[in-house]
Design brief:
13 helices; about 575 residues; about 25% strand; single chain; 31 strands; Purple Acid Phosphatase, chain A, domain 2; alpha/beta
Length: about 575
């Protein structure tokens, strides 16, 4: 045996001995960082077998967004960490990770974590990764990172500013740290399948020996801390969360609050994380996602909204079993509300590289997620091919508000040519090949009725019936049928909808205006033709609620297409 081979064999034996000793003695606690470095640097990159690849998400339903969240990402070396997880991340509409270190070549070690001799305090570590990992994150398919954690300021404000610059250059949005407090508290705003998503990020001050030099101020770079006392958020923290989430709700359809919190290696969430999560949801957050314990914790449903207390590690050199078993979370949302959470089991090797969980690890990962979630009152379903854990929304809420992207299309403009008239622009459901999809529509009405008409069509659009509107006619300078006076259309106080399916009938005969094609007999088929207005349907309800009349209620004649406003 050569001296080189012998040396490698001795080294391997020592490393394995240390690994096993730590496993027995340390349990789920983290290993010394020098051992992480040694094990990681001595293990070469190997081709990934097909079964190591995380499967891409299933097809999205119309209007559905698929958002992936992962836990702590610590890319300390110049290597490809994401080859095995790329299929899932790249196929998502959005992907978000917690970046657990600055990406920089500058800065100085933070004195907060050093003793008087310049050595790291017990159980404190300082991390920094190469700036090119920002591009690697983007190429892997990530769209945003959270920076609120206990390592983002390990090398001070200079390193953080370089991190922000390389993230911006790579096209990655970020939240939870910034050049000043206002920027650090600002949400990352992203778009996914027509829905606007806001991500806010915070770190618990209990993850550090103090916050001096780490907290962002009006003039200095840093991160955003939340604090608690006796298991409850402080008054300042409550006020900050309330204001931040309220402001994010004005800009987004779906608000995510990310927290770096809790106790390392503990399977259950502490009292403060539970109180913070519930308060965030009370303030309007749609989802709470946590990390820092380095192990998976359970999922709780509170007020119908999910709290994922810890996603564990994702890219992290950790030889201890509990730290290496993790999951990537995929969230499905539609219409601004969550529909389903899917947890894809992941195993992390000693180099910190995540891959689809091995067959031997699957029972432990899946069993842990189910057990810890059930302790929080959440039922999980286990699916196979590929193996995954699913939590479904038991009662998706009915939509009452427009999405941010939809609000831009519900507008009122003065008519450029006709005095006293306004154009109302809105979205309506259109039917194409049996599928309903949003389509822009507009109608001209009297200016004083424009706000009311906009509210009518907003209600029709948001109603679960999703009534399809193929045609809508408002202002038309016509005379009353059979008379010489101006009709309500000429006054901008009448609207016709889907004329071909909702005819005007007088004394058993269908009547048409001169500019309209003749109706075919027997075309009003409410309940059969999806474009036919029904007496108890969403269209009639929305107009009548605001004092409009429906021609289908007339006695002498029937005009099922017609709505008008007395006055």
């Amino acid at each position: 045996m050569s001296r080189f081979v012998a040396r490698r064999a001795i080294f391997a034996a020592i490393a394995i001995g240390l690994f096993l000793a730590g496993w027995v003695i340390g349990g789920e606690m983290g290993a010394p960082r020098w051992l992480y470095r040694v094990l990681g640097s001595r293990l070469p990159d190997e081709p990934l077998p097909a079964e190591a690849q995380l499967a891409p998400p299933g097809p999205a339903a119309p209007g559905e967004a698929r958002i992936v969240f992962v836990g702590d990402v610590l890319p300390l070396e110049d290597r490809d960490y994401f080859a095995a997880v790329h299929p899932l991340i790249a196929a998502a509409d959005l992907a978000v990770a917690n970046l657990e270190c600055p990406l920089s070549t500058h800065g100085r070690r933070a004195s907060l974590k050093l003793d008087g001799n310049g050595r790291a305090l017990p159980n404190e570590y300082l991390f920094i990764g190469p700036p090119k990992q920002a591009r690697a994150l983007a190429e892997a398919g990530f769209d945003a990172v959270t920076l609120a954690n206990n390592h983002t300021m390990d090398y001070g404000g200079e390193a953080l500013l370089e991190t922000l610059a390389v993230l911006d250059e790579a096209g990655l949005r970020h939240a939870g740290a910034g050049p000043d407090e206002r920027s650090a508290r600002a949400p990352a705003i992203l778009e996914a399948a027509g829905q606007t998503v806001a991500v806010l990020a915070y770190v618990s001050d209990r993850t550090l020996p103090g916050t001096d030099g780490f907290a962002a101020t009006e003039r200095t770079a840093g991160t955003v801390f939340v604090s608690g006392s006796h298991g409850q958020p402080t008054r300042h923290t409550r006020q900050m969360l309330r204001n931040d989430i309220r402001d994010a709700r004005q800009r987004a359809d779906f608000v995510v609050a990310s927290f770096h919190w809790g106790t390392e290696a503990r399977p259950q969430p502490d009292a403060l994380p539970r109180a913070l999560a519930r308060y965030a949801i009370d303030c309007g957050a749609d989802l709470v996602v946590g990390h820092h314990p380095h192990v998976l914790q359970g999922i709780e449903l509170y007020g119908g909204r999910p709290i994922v207390y810890s996603l564990g590690n994702f890219v992290f050199r950790a030889p201890w079993p509990g730290n290496r078993l993790s999951a990537a979370m995929q969230l499905r949302t539609r219409g601004g509300s969550w529909r389903e959470i899917v947890l894809h089991p992941v195993t992390i090797d000693a180099r910190g590289v995540p891959r689809a969980a091995s067959e031997s690890d699957l029972p432990e990962i899946i069993g842990r997620i189910r057990r810890l979630s059930e302790q929080l009152g959440t039922d999980c379903e286990v699916l196979q091919s590929p193996p995954r854990v699913v939590v479904r929304n038991p009662a998706p809420p009915q939509r009452h508000e427009l999405l941010v992207s939809e609000r831009r299309q519900f507008t009122i403009e003065p008519h450029p040519e006709i005095d006293g008239m306004a154009t109302v622009n809105f979205l309506a459901w259109e039917l194409s090949d049996g599928e309903k999809h949003p389509a822009p529509r507009s109608v001209v009405v009297a200016r004083e009725l424009a706000d009311e008409v906009l509210a009518v069509f907003r209600e029709i659009y948001l109603d679960p019936e999703r009534f399809p509107i193929a045609e809508v006619i408002g202002y038309d300078h016509r005379t009353v049928t059979g008379g010489s006076g101006l009709s309500r259309h000429a006054l901008g106080r009448a609207i016709d909808i889907n004329r071909a399916q909702n005819p005007m009938i007088r004394e058993g005969e269908k009547l048409v205006h001169p500019a309209e094609p003749p109706y075919e007999p027997g075309e009003w088929r409410p309940g059969e033709d999806p474009h036919s207005i029904t007496p108890g349907g969403s269209v009639v309800r929305a107009f009548k609620r605001r004092g409009w009349r429906w021609g289908g209620d007339w006695r002498v004649s029937k005009d099922y297409q017609h709505f008008d406003r007395p006055g």
